[in-house]
Amino acid sequence: MASTKPFIRVRKAELADTDAIVRIHFEAFDDDVMNQLMHPGGATESSRKRFGERVFPRPQSDEELAKNGETILNVAEYFPEGPDGPCEVVAFSKWVLHRNPRTEEQWKSEDYVPTVENFGEGADLSVINAFIGELNRKQRDHAKGEAALFLGILACSPNRQRLGAGSALVKWGTDLADSLRLPTRLESSPVGYAVYRKFGFEDVDVLDMKVKETWGVTKEEGRYWGENNAVALAGPVPEGVMRSVIMRRPVKRRGSAA
Q: Gene3D superfamilies annotated for this entry (predicted)?
């Protein structure tokens, strides 16, 4: 009798997955306060199109590859009826692999400058720069060009939570990093923090966004802004502040604990 146990499979993304990836991304972050501020009128068709265009890796010269790294886009497929049944894409991850250290000139030249061409009409570029731009700058200044695997985005469909899709995508990355003897780096959202800690990521720095003071937005009841995250490193999260955490997973030696 064939098994009907549902399972998750991770594979490389294809262009045919674009619509699913775009949908999952904006659905996953729809109730995130910073995403709402970055897209104050909701994600426009222009923003969705631009995201779909920039999420996939583009051809690079050897010089560009050495500076920018190798982009790896994966999806997680959910098979509710087992491996021989139908499946759906329920999550995706975008990684950047730097196999070799970069020169100081290379990594210091990195600068995150959001544009309408990248983010589409209706996006608030000032908020994007203050949030995503600052996260990128903090990560850059801590990494200092080290060879590493960077997780840029991880998103899971809100209707398909707790199936293990997000964990499967993270495990794919940490397994790759371990096989290459490289550390792994990321910037954690409030809700992703516990998952990353489970996989051995350690706190490096925080970005505390003064949401209430800067934009006049008060946290809604039931929302989580990272109040319990990285407290040992950075102290309690002040009221009206959303905390993101810069994290790094050290190289795992063969036979070491996860």
A: 3.40.630.30
Compute the distance between CA of residue 182 and CA of residue 189 in angstroms, rounded to an integer.
23
In the chain, alpha helices (H): 18-28, 33-38, 45-55, 62-68, 104-108, 116-119, 125-128, 134-143, 165-180, 193-198, 211-215, 231-234
Give the 3-state secondary structure of residue 235.
coil
* pTM as predicted: 0.93
- How many CA atoms, within 13 angstroms, populate the side-chain half-sphere of residue 224? 11
Q: pLDDT tens digits, residue range 191-250? A: 999 999 999 999 999 999 999 999 999 999 999 999 999 999 999 999 999 999 999 999
* Cβ-Cβ contacts under 8 Å for 204 (sequence gap 6 or more): 142, 233, 245, 246, 247, 248
